[in-house]
UniProtKB/TrEMBL annotation, chains A, B:
This is Transcriptional regulator MntR. It comes from Cellulophaga tyrosinoxydans. PANTHER family: IRON (METAL) DEPENDENT REPRESSOR, DTXR FAMILY, TRANSCRIPTIONAL REGULATOR MNTR. In the presence of manganese, represses expression of mntH and mntS. Up-regulates expression of mntP. GO terms for cellular component: cytoplasm. SMART domains: FeoA, HTH_DTXR. Its main location: cytoplasm. Keywords: Activator, Cytoplasm, DNA-binding, Manganese, Repressor, Transcription, Transcription regulation. One of its GO terms (molecular function) is DNA binding.
DNA sequence: ACATATTTTTAGATTTGTCTAAATTTTATT
DNA sequence: AATAAAATTTAGACAAATCTAAAAATATGT
């Protein structure tokens, strides 16, 4: 029964990839999608899926895609929890910037110690969101749910507080730093250009113009 | 040239084992000794030694034992440094007790990020010793050297400050906790029994009797 | 619906780290 | 110094995770 509790780093990486792909389209995940996400070959994915299926982490029928079982989802959530807690640690305690933490958290998320995870959580003050605004599941696997929307969906003259990014790649995060856009900032949409979808916004008492691409990767919460 | 910089967890574990065995007897390390230390088979050790030799971490002649090269020593020191810094983190920041930290640090020592190690060092206030009193090498690989001796070597009516343990196994550490013996405590040797080598000591204003076995696993620094 | 394209799986090979069992070398003993 | 004992290495095998190339299943387009 407890024989299957140990997971290798690789198994955990697959579970996490399936989780992230699964929450997006809310259906079974394609072999090729996993292969692309993990930068590996579809044949390798098939092999691993079989193994994870035998261990009870995913349900799988040949050619029909894969989805996480309850056990698999639970496992994925603990990995996501660890990843995001470590990101908070790196930013809050070690003064890393939000574009530097992902790669290190990819390593730290595999550290096996429930007590460590829980102590870290406590040490950080039970944070609900990571440095990119992504929610941190509780020990029980529950997310704080928020009613966030993309900035480009906000109507003219409406406001919101910046609560997250959709694209958390280093280039985008560095762009935001450079233009002094940070989580917690109060943003008012002043105007939208029909021509290119760009937005005129007020942020930190300054009025700036941002492209549609930027606006569609920034989450805000209505105030 | 830089092809050999990446090391697997397993390679790092071997390097660390060779390091620890090497500093003790200050000579080449035997295959069997490594096998025993790592709880593996001598044939596996031979295979790995070959690989580490090809990568330049150890120097090795068949049947003649193995020793770390400068590169290998440097690598070992960074692993030891990471291990001990994480131990300090766990005890100082996350309130772990000193008998719980070794296993977790065994995992954390493999995290690859020089910036993380250095930031952690800074965050912890550049500690010179881990929770067991073992010295933490600096980024440059230098130890703070101390003139510590075992408690059983202290003459009657002489004193010392408890600075470390020779045996850092959980049972011994728990024993010390139970009897309220901690690093930093001021200890005076009042008497030694010829019969069994046990010592009468004064610690924290209390006089207690400890066995030779205990005394020979406690390091003190002369005051 | 049929042909074609795409996706997925299979079969077989490779690398890493390990093992067992046998062979070899070194060390210890008498 | 010869022989026994111990340590070490070699040879061959295995499991995990990956790959390539080919085969099979599914999806797409007219």
């Amino acid at each position: 029964m407890f024989k299957f509790l140990f997971m290798t780093h690789s198994e955990e990486d697959y579970i996490k990839a399936i989780y992230h792909l699964g929450v997006l389209n809310n259906s079974t995940v394609a072999t090729n999608a996993i292969a692309e996400q993990m930068d590996t070959k579809p044949s390798s994915v098939t092999d691993m899926i079989r193994k994870l299926s035998e261990k009870g982490f995913v349900s799988y029928k040949k050619y029909q895609g894969v989805s996480l079982t309850d056990l698999g989802t639970q496992k994925a959530l603990t990995i996501v929890r660890k990843h995001r807690l470590w990101e908070v640690f790196l930013v809050d305690k070690l003064d890393f910037s939000w574009d530097e933490v992902h790669e290190i958290a990819e390593q730290l998320e595999h550290i096996k110690s429930e007590k460590l995870t829980d102590s870290l959580d406590k040490h950080l003050g039970y944070p609900k969101f990571d440095p990119h605004g992504d929610p941190i599941p509780s020990k029980a696997g529950v997310f704080t749910n928020t009613t966030k929307k993309l900035l480009n969906e906000v109507a003219i003259n409406n406001s919101g507080i910046c609560v997250g990014v959709k694209d958390s790649s280093a280039p985008f995060l560095k762009f935001l730093d450079k233009h002094e856009i940070a989580l917690g900032d109060y943003i008012t949409v002043l105007d939208k250009e029909d021509f290119d979808g760009s937005l005129q916004i007020k942020i930190n008492e300054k009025i700036i113009l941002i492209s549609h691409q930027i606006a569609s990767n920034l989450y805000v919460k209505s105030t």
